[in-house]
From TrEMBL:
Stated name of the protein: GTP cyclohydrolase 1 type 2 homolog
Subunit structure and binding partners: Homohexamer.
Source superkingdom: Bacteria
InterPro entries, A to Z: DUF34/NIF3, DUF34/NIF3_sf
Assigned GO CC terms: cytoplasm
Keywords associated with the record: Metal-binding
């Protein structure tokens, strides 16, 4: 099957036009017209993943390898070191990032958090965040404790522990700027929260729960593999590893 045929199937599953304007979902490396021997899926393209993939294959990842324009291709630095290997092995790379967040991953992440058990129910979406609301407010501390236990985390950062939460803004990965669309007594569940964003949100009575980036998106490969099976494409999941260690 040609890369273009699989690209079109991916576009039907999660249209690339839905990606954020700053994103680079779509074909990152390769040629739409070449035949691919096998289809692989991984959260990230890293050295371990690229070395495990068969020559002449297609790799579908969540995070684009190339975000910004490259002024030089220096092959002992990232991302050129990975691009070089992909070209040598004739590996094509397609990214399914914020478009897949919007159509699949945010919903799957919210489902994983079992929010209905806390009387939070879906209440639409705004930008790239899902909104959940409740008529029985819950403290940030209680909500954070629930999420920590559901995800099996040893630690979990959060702010404004005594806030009584009415609405949740949920985005897998990283979307700390969601505080700009939230209101007092709302809580943002996302990752990679910076100190100063937390300070600004706290001054406006908005809570954060900082779910680690990897833990909120590690379900990507399974989700996409199941979607591709409906189109009779059997993809091989190549596990990406969390770059962080904890003590």
């Amino acid at each position: 099957m040609k890369v273009l045929e699989i690209y079109n199937i991916l576009d039907s599953i999660s249209p690339f036009i839905m990606q954020a304007e700053w994103d680079n979902s779509g074909l990152n490396i390769g040629n739409m017209q070449i035949e691919c021997k096998q289809v692989y899926i991984a959260l990230e393209l890293d050295m371990q993943v690229v070395n495990a993939i068969e020559n002449g294959s297609l790799l579908i990842v969540h995070h684009p390898l190339i975000f910004k324009a490259l002024k030089t291709i220096q092959t002992d630095t990232y991302p050129a070191n990975l691009i070089e290997i992909c070209l040598q092995k004739r590996i094509s790379v397609i990214a399914m990032h914020t478009n897949f967040d919007k159509t699949h991953l945010n919903k799957a992440f919210a489902t994983k958090l079992c929010l209905e058990s806390l009387n939070f129910t879906p209440n639409g979406e705004k930008d790239f965040s899902l909104i959940y609301s409740t008529s029985t407010p819950l403290s940030t501390y209680s909500l954070a404790t629930h999420i920590k236990n559901i995800l099996g985390l040893d630690t979990l950062r959060y702010t404004q522990k005594d806030n009584m939460i009415h609405n949740l803004y949920i985005t897998c990965g990283s979307n700390a700027t969601a505080y700009k669309i939230a209101n007092k007594r709302d809580c943002i569940i996302t990752g990679d929260i910076k100190y100063h964003d937390a300070m600004i949100a706290a001054s406006e009575g908005i809570s954060f729960i900082d779910v680690p980036h990897f833990e909120s998106e590690c379900i990507f490969s399974d989700l996409l593999a199941k979607a591709l099976q409906k189109h009779h494409i059997q993809a091989i999941i190549t596990n990406s590893h969390n770059p962080f260690c904890y003590i």
